[in-house]
Design brief:
By secondary structure, the protein is an alpha+beta fold. The protein has 2 domains: 107 residues, no CATH class; 202 residues, Jelly Rolls. 27% of the residues lie in helices and 28% in strands. Strands 1, 3, 4, 6, 14, 15, 16 and 19 form an 8-stranded antiparallel beta sheet that branches. The longest helix has 24 residues.
Length: 361
């Protein structure tokens, strides 16, 4: 089975002598890089760092924060502005996410977040969110639209996913700012498709009315964009709040969303990196998901640097106990990766970089 087209002819490909020699050399290099990362020493250093890490990792940016939906257990606005959300149809579940807990959307829920006054897409803004799509079909992730005809307002969409490799799907991210669709609008999309997995997205808009002023960052990195519409003469402001899953405006979102933030200004590169990289670490260090507090230490693999992706185990054995263990292992793995990438002594950081490069080949 190839996972897509049914049964395939059995094939056993053997490496040539030259390929086998290259594989053997690669294995030797990987073994050397792993030997340069002594587990006990790194664990001890990381443990000392974690005692004071929260005092050294920058806090999340708050200047210009209009609304913040952490989605830990409800639709409350944590920014202090009281723009709480409400459910209009269906229900929202909450499960483990990348930043504590996340909201799970089944494709039938319709929610509104805040008020129209909380977000004006006709001026400079930034929007940041963790997302993990749960459907291969085209769908709207977030929308603030006047109606289905003019589509005046702001919208983030994912186009229909297609296969990359044998078992992975990927989509483009599309952002629209519209006065009257399709002739008076800005539309950009990522030049490359992105695998359907947990990602952090930041959208920056400078308020210029030009597509060049719309930027996207995925996992903290600026994306190459294709401009598909670049003619906006009217305002994109609408008298509607941000919505998720409005069935009158398109296919409802299926998947998870976490830590949704709206700012009334563009974010700097450093702030975007903080939200994508450092904020999840701060949340893990505070234990806000509660996962690791529920798992006995004896059940955890002490060598977090060599753990396989815990989501593999979760997908095979989807029980509450294993979901908690999966989340805890994932958090420990990401803490270790952060420590070895940004904090550990230089020799260990270099060995980690070398190992990552070798395992990509």
């Amino acid at each position: 089975m190839d996972g897509r087209e049914g049964n395939a002819e059995p094939v056993l490909e053997l490496p040539s002598p030259e390929q086998q020699q290259q594989l053997d050399e690669l294995k030797e290099k990987i073994a050397a890089a792993e030997a340069a990362l002594p587990e006990k020493e790194i664990t001890a250093l990381q443990g000392e760092w974690q005692k004071t890490a929260l005092t050294t990792i920058p806090s999340d940016p708050r200047d210009g924060l209009v609304s913040l939906y952490e989605f830990d257990s409800d639709l409350a606005d944590s920014s202090g502005h009281g723009a709480n959300g409400q459910t209009l149809q269906g229900g929202v579940a909450y499960d483990f996410g990348r930043v504590g807990r996340a909201a799970e959307f089944s494709g039938f829920a319709h929610i509104q977040l805040g008020t129209a006054a909380a977000f004006d897409p006709s001026h400079a803004f930034a929007l940041a969110v963790w997302f993990s799509p749960g459907s291969k079909f085209e769908m709207s992730m977030l929308q603030q639209l006047a109606d289905a005809r003019s589509r005046r307002g702001f919208e983030i969409l994912l186009d229909e996913a297609h296969w990359i490799g044998a078992q992975k799907r990927a989509s483009h991210i599309i952002v629209c700012l519209t006065h009257e669709w399709p002739d008076d609008a800005l539309e950009v999309r990522t030049r490359n498709v992105l695998p359907l997995e947990t990602r952090h997205l930041t959208i920056n808009y400078d308020g210029s009315g030009r597509a060049a002023g719309l930027l996207m960052f995925v996992d903290g990195k600026a994306q190459e964009l294709e401009i598909t519409k670049d003619h906006l003469t009217g305002s994109a402001a609408v008298a509607h709040p941000i919505e998720i899953g409005n069935p009158e405006l398109g296919k409802a979102y299926t998947g998870s969303l976490d830590d949704l933030r709206v700012y009334n200004r563009s974010l700097t590169a450093e702030e975007i990196e903080q939200l994508a990289t450092q904020q999840p670490i701060r949340v893990m260090l505070r234990g806000l998901s509660g996962a690791c507090a529920k798992v006995p230490p004896a059940e955890l693999d002490g060598d977090t640097s060599k753990n396989e992706d815990p989501l593999i185990e979760e997908s095979m054995f989807d029980t509450p106990e294993l979901r908690v263990k999966s989340q805890c292992l994932g958090e420990k793995k990401r803490l270790r990766e952060y420590f070895l990438t940004y904090v550990a002594p230089k020799t260990f950081r270099q060995a980690e970089t070398d190992l990552e490069e070798l395992t990509k080949t």
